[in-house]
Amino acid sequence: MPSKPSKDLEVFDNPQTERDYTIRIRIPEFTCLCPKTGQPDFATLYLDYVPDKLCVELKALKMYIWSFREEGVFHEAITNSMLDDLFNACQPRFMRLTADFNVRGGVYTKVVAERQQENWQAPTPVQLP
C-alpha cells in the first residue's frame, strides 16, 4: 500500500496572513469504531477555520483522518481530540470542527467543538441588501 494512516499533521505558510478569511473543508468518509460494540461509526466532518500564519496540508489531513479507522472512541471524545490536534498544529485565529455522525440505534449525533486565539475578534458580518 503506497500510503498509510498517520497522526502527523503537516502545515504550510498562509499566503494571506494580513486578512481574515475562512477555509472550509468537508470530509465525508470519516470512520471510527464504537467503543462499546466495536461496530463502525461513520461521519461527515466539517472543518472551518480562519488561519493565522499556517494552514493545514490536505494530504496529511486525509492520512490523519484515516488513522482513526480502527480506534474505538466516543463521538464527543474524538471530535474534541481532533480539534485540539488540528488547532495545535496550525494555531489558527479560529477553528470549528463539526462531526455529523450517521444514525446509530435510531439516534443521530452531531458534535460541534470550537477554539480560538485569545485576542482574536470575529469580524462583523457584512449584510447585503
List keywords for this structure.
single chain, about 130 residues, alpha+beta, GTP Cyclohydrolase I, domain 2, 4-stranded antiparallel beta sheet, two-stranded antiparallel ribbon, 2 helices, 6 strands, about 40% strand
What features would you describe in this structure?
This protein has about 130 residues and is α+β, with helices and mostly antiparallel strands. It has one domain (about 10-115): GTP cyclohydrolase I, C-terminal domain/NADPH-dependent 7-cyano-7-deazaguanine reductase, N-terminal domain (GTP Cyclohydrolase I, domain 2, 2-Layer Sandwich). The chain contains two helices and six strands; from the N terminus they run ββββααββ. The strands form two sheets. It has a four-stranded antiparallel beta sheet with strand order 2-3-5-6, with helices on one face. Strands 1-4 form a two-stranded antiparallel ribbon. A hairpin with a 6-residue loop joins strand 2 (about 25-35) and strand 3 (about 40-50). The longest helix has 16 residues, at about 75-90. The radius of gyration is 16 Å and the shape is globular.
